[in-house]
């Protein structure tokens, strides 16, 4: 595997209808030999199925990034995403930091950390669904040296304007940080989609269709950091005030 040439499988997965459906999707799509790493949507699995996902990654010898919803009985519940390596080890774990009104009404808790992850193919970050709309999240990952941001999305977009807006956000996060952004949603009654944008804002994938996987090759050597050394952090204090 050329660590600068990363083949990413963006899986527009069927929505979760029972506890076995997500594992079936994982088993089916990770059989593809072209992809080095597979991205599955937000909440694709429940937390009690994480060990099954790890076993699939280990058996396939592939990287998997997937959204995950809590099924724990603890005091707080979160929206998670995990990065699992080909040995089945969890190397990255992110809790969603920005929540929608619907998620807040369902008493999900905010994650409190934005930490990039070191992988065999370089540093990566995860922005779960709605988080992609907050430029600070992507910028923090870029400042940590991330070359790619994975964006597992829940539902697809509900109308064409949303679809165009989300792709605009993906393109902007890529071009303003000089990194790759990739994302995909579930396939449901909304507009299912997958996207990928290069560090210069070039569209590599923009699709809106049914349950399938789109494979895209990312040349990570093209990442260029977008002049981060010219920032003026001493002027940005208001960004951290509530």
Task: Explain how this protein is built.
The mean pLDDT is about 90. It is built from 5 helices and 13 strands. The protein has helices spanning about 20-30, 50-60, 100-105, 135-145, 160-175, and strands at about 5-10, 35-40, 45, 65-70, 80-85, 90-95, 115-120, 120-125, 150, 180-185, 195, 205, 210-220. The strands form 2 sheets. Strands 1, 2, 3, 4, 5, 6 and 13 form a 7-stranded mixed beta sheet that branches. Strands 7-8-9-10-11-12 form a 6-stranded mixed beta sheet, with helices on one face. Helix 5 (about 160-175) links the parallel strand 9 and strand 10 (about 180-185). It is α/β, with parallel strands linked by helices. The termini are far apart.
